Amino acid sequence: MRRSSRNFLRVVLAALLAVVVFAAFCFGVVPQRFSPFAPIDLADPPTWFLDPRLAAMRNDPDLCRAVLRAPHIVATPIPDKVQANGCGWTNAVRVREVGGAELGLEQLTCETSAALALWVEQDLQPLALSMFGSRVTWMQDMGTYSCRNMIGNKRWVNLRSQHALANAVDIGGLRLANGKHMSIAKDYRADTPEGRFLRAAHMRACRYFRVAIGPQFNAAHRDHLHFDRGIFTRCQ
Questions:
Q1: Under a CB-based contact definition with an 8 Å cutoff, are residues 131 and 193 in contact?
Q2: pLDDT tens by residue, 23-42
Q3: Whole-angstrom Cα distance, residue 14 to residue 129?
Q4: pTM of the model
Q5: Cα–Cα distance, 227 to 95 (Å, whole number)
Q6: DSSP assignment of 28-96
Q7: How far apart are CA 202 and CA 123, in angstroms?
Q8: pLDDT tens, position by position, 210-226
């Protein structure tokens, strides 16, 4: 074998190894104790390698309990429920409050709960204070777990939604401490302070969630923001 061919083969193998290692971190295969990245701390602003640090929580209940703590989030672990039809959840929690805002979620994965807490505390609350001088005190839950396929596109009929794994959350609106109420259906597209706030908050969620979509994505999301940490990436 010529030297050039051997060098090419080495490059290909190195690239494949890099892809495998990257995927292992992105899908939470590597336990936190073997990770070169520091564990997530909900008290700290987002830093480098946020995505693999969130993913490390996927299969680690002990890390989940250590990270999901008040005052950043009020969450209680729930038993795993795995079904043969591709639905169910593992390492999930029940959420009652996140970043100081009431939000009743019965099932949400630890990983996505941490992403939600970071978004609310690090971005949503500061944005609300800067634009309206008031904090978010309540968020409208429009769904987490639902054993179903993806909707909104005929090509997705055979693909399980991240909702089927309790790995997604839909937000329909919110209320501030001063009584102001904003809804995705009514205010998101409006050329108003409320509309600009909701659109900015949506875009800031993209650093925490792999999918962050809303009314601009398709008609199925006209009345809510959908956030998940599945295998796809989309911010729209």
A1: yes
A2: 455 565 667 666 788 899 99
A3: 48
A4: 0.88
A5: 15
A6: T-S-GGG-SSPPP-TTSPP-TTHHHHHHTTTT-HHHHHHHS-TTTEEEEEE--EE-TTS-EESSEEEEE
A7: 10
A8: 999 999 999 999 999 99
